[in-house]
Amino acid sequence: MSQATPGAGKAAASQQDPPTMSLTVKVWRQAGPDAPGGLVTYPVTGLTPDMSFLEMLDVLNEDLQRQGQDPVAFDSDCREGICGMCGLVINGIAHGLGAGATTCQLYLRRFADGDTITIEPFRARAFPVIKDLVVDRSALDRIMQAGGYTSVNAGSAPDGNALLISRDLSEQAMDAAACIGCGACVASCKNASAMLFVAAKVTHLNVLPQGQPERLQRTTALVARMQEEGFGHCTNEYECEAVCPKEISADSIAFLNREFARAKVKKTALGKLLGE
C-alpha cells in the first residue's frame, strides 16, 4: 500500500494556482467636462493573464476605494463585445492591441508582467469627456435619429420567403448591421470622422427591399447630421477599418459615397423637373 509523500498535496495545489502579474497603468483622470485632465500613474497587482482589461480596471478601482480615493470612471455594460459601451484608447490604439475585439474582450495575456499601459478616453470634438474615461457618444444616436431606420408600416412579421433577397445582398446587409456604434472608428481617425459608422447604417438599410422607399432621404439626412455634429471628413487612411471590433470593411464608405452622389443627382433632377 503506497503512502502519500508529505507536502505533495500542497505542491500540487500550488502548481494549479494561476500565475499572477503586475502592471503599471497611466490613466487619464478628469473630474468633469470643463476640468483640466492628465495622466495619473497607478500600480496594479494580483492580476492573472485570464482577466479581461475591464476586470483589471475593477481591481484598480477596488484598491482606490480601499485607499479612500475616487475610482476611475469608465463605460461598460455587457462585457461580451456586443453592446458597444466600452471604449478606451489603450497604448494609442482604440480598443487596444488585437483585431476584431472590443475593450472588454481584450485579455491581460496580451501583456507581459511589469508592462506599463497608457489608458485614455476616445478623443473627438463630437465626443466630449464627461469624467475620466467616459465620453458622451450621443452624437451617434442623433445621427441614427436623423434617418437610420425604416418607417414603413410593415404590419406583422412576414413569411421568411415573402421577399426574395439574394445571398450576396443579405450578407452585405448583415455585415454592415454588425456595427455596434462603439465609436472606435471616430477615435482612431485623425479627422475624427464617423464615415464608417454612417456607411454601415446606410449599407445595412439601403441594400434591402425594406429600405428602398426612404433610400435617398436616409442617405442625405445621415450625412448632413454627421456634419452638424462636428465629425471630420474621411481622407481614406483606413484606420477605422483597422480598429473596428466587428471588422466592417471600408468598402462600405465607397458605397456611401455612391449613394450620396446618387441622392444629390436625383434631388437636383427632380428639383428642375418641378421648377424648384
How would you explain this protein's 3D organization?
The structure is a single chain. With 276 residues, the chain is an alpha+beta fold. The protein has two domains: 18-131, Ubiquitin-like (UB roll); 137-149 and 167-273, Orthogonal Bundle (Fumarate Reductase Iron-sulfur Protein, Chain B, domain 2), CATH 1.10.1060.10. The protein is built from nine helices and seven strands, in the order αββαβββββααααααα. It has helices at residues 8-16, 53-66, 138-145, 167-177, 184-188, 195-206, 215-228, 239-243, 251-273; strands at 21-30, 37-47, 88-90, 93-94, 116-121, 129-131, 134-135. The strands form two sheets. It has a five-stranded mixed β-sheet. The chain is elongated. The model has no long low-confidence stretch (mean pLDDT 90).
Overall 3D shape: elongated
Helical residue percent? 25-40%
Q: Largest sheet, described in full?
A: 5 strands, mixed
Low-confidence stretches: none
Count of domain modules: 2
Return the average pLDDT rounded to an integer. Answer: 90
How far apart are the termini?
Answer: 102 Å
Structural class: alpha+beta
What's the name of the CATH homologous superfamily of the largest domain?
A: Alpha-helical ferredoxin
Strand content: 5-15%
